[in-house]
Design a protein that fits this description.
This protein is of the alpha/beta class. The chain is 37% helix and 19% strand. The structure holds NADP nicotinamide-adenine-dinucleotide phosphate.
Length: 108
């Protein structure tokens, strides 16, 4: 059976990278598309996961995607469509840690 294609945005660090690690540790084979804004950071994350899980059944590939840019999203869509013809799972994780401030100002 063909591997499921999984795209994770914001996958070079934090929760996104932990999802990459979890998929790499699985006995299932996945095509893991490691999404990020910076190619260097994505490549470093892929190297780290490949070093940690040398026997993984999954294949890791970089994909550049900035979720605030329609151009970037369209480019990523075209890449996935032409290379895989499908996307089984999208983990739309990218975002800012603590993006909402806990501080509140009370005014009259
Ligand atoms: N950690 C928590 O306690 C918590 C709680 C509730 C919700 N969340 C949500 O869970 C998600 C991950 O959190 P985290 O703690 O893992 O955050 P994190 O460590 O700050 O990692 C965020 C990731 O998102 C990427 N990113 C940010 N803006 C982006 C954009 N416009 N396009 C593409 N990638 C972008 C970052 O890329 P760069 O490395 O290029 O900056 C980084 O890879 C976020 O959406 C956050 O709001 C987290």
């Amino acid at each position: 059976m063909a591997s499921k294609v999984v795209l994770i945005t914001g996958a070079n660090t934090g929760i996104g990278f932990q999802i990459v690690r979890a998929l790499c540790s699985s006995s299932q084979a996945y095509e893991i598309l490691v999404g990020g804004r910076s190619s260097n950071k994505v490549q470093d994350a892929i190297s780290a996961a490949e070093n940690e899980f040398p026997d993984t059944k999954s294949k890791l590939s970089p994909i550049q995607i900035d979720i605030e840019s329609d151009d970037s999203i369209n480019k990523a869509f075209s890449q996935v469509q032409s290379k895989y013809g499908k996307l089984d799972i999208l983990v739309n994780n990218a975002g800012m840690r603590g993006g909402v401030s806990d501080e509140r100002t009370i005014t009259d």
